[in-house]
Specification:
2 domains, 9 helices, 7% strand, homodimer, 222 residues, Glutaredoxin, alpha+beta
Amino acid sequence: MFLYWGSGSVPCWKPMIVLAEQGLWQDVPNKLLSFSNKEHKSEEVMKLNPRGQAPTFRDGDLVVCESGAICQYLDDKYSNDDNRLIPTDAAQRSQVYQRMYESLNLHAFVIQTLYYYKRTTKKEDQDANYLKEKIEAAEVEISRWNVYLEGKEYLACDKFTMADVFFYPFLAIFVRLGVKLEKNTNLQKYYDRITQRASVQATWPPHWKEGPGPAILDDVKA
Amino acid sequence: MFLYWGSGSVPCWKPMIVLAEQGLWQDVPNKLLSFSNKEHKSEEVMKLNPRGQAPTFRDGDLVVCESGAICQYLDDKYSNDDNRLIPTDAAQRSQVYQRMYESLNLHAFVIQTLYYYKRTTKKEDQDANYLKEKIEAAEVEISRWNVYLEGKEYLACDKFTMADVFFYPFLAIFVRLGVKLEKNTNLQKYYDRITQRASVQATWPPHWKEGPGPAILDDVKA
């Protein structure tokens, strides 16, 4: 196996957590790419993944680059009954799938509409009405996940599953970017608990250890 | 089972094709919602799916609303060796997953950035540079899928799989909205072939039978 990845990227972090849950991460040859140096557009990556994106993953001759696809492949191929992240029971699987796919919307709801907008639009050019609307939408969206966690330690089952693998990296990035989880105490507790998990600690984005993130989303109070 | 759905919606069409492939569609109780009458926000739907979206699906007490999750659940639960849409072999599965997840990007690449923009922005207010950039990006994206189909009848395996279920509805909508597949002849042949498939014909969006679509994307020449 070989994984090209970037530090602090949700799509990269997901398969890394899966590999760590399987006890494989420390043995997987891998390369940390610098996005700012455009290493994800290097020939080395592009010949495997013409999109020039991270993650780019191969296992022997098999190339898989979509984050969700890598995660499902790894669970199919390398999990056992003790560490399977998508359960075998069809009803339980459906609830894991539901949260997996649902979490993909968080990119559009928060990162794309709010984080990218604020990062790429000069403060004086930012549209206050647009911002207000998108901040409210982000707060509503984040609060939904707080409801899902009511009375539960994990998102979809009574143990850590692929639903948590897909969702947690988004939550961690929101927190790093300044989102306050003041009202959503289930989410705060969930964040504190999952952050301590060995697979999460083993794959924590290296550049996050150097200091706090830019508080770009500190007007989101969820 | 019960499915709430809307006509011409990619997320609704996907599980309908799965059910038709399984020979179940004609027997599944269902309700066609009118999006323009906001029936997806009705109490009947909202009590199952607080997002108020279609598809909304239940099987007994089990509620699944994310389109991809419904598809994977249906394949887990109701497919047999003759009609399974996600193969059992892990390597083959990985290639099906890859195209499944990859197809989800088509919403952002074409529908969100181009179709929604053109539909919601008055012609005189549309930014020519933005449009040019997004049309080119859509053409590049669509051409990628043409390459994937080089020498192949189906996207991921030598038979119809969940990759085709996820991708084809996007392609059909692009064609309906006026996208020309002039250069991408693999895609044109694929479109013609899959359109004739029984599961696709049985679930063809009812309002599409009434006449051609609005040619909103006719400046995309892929």
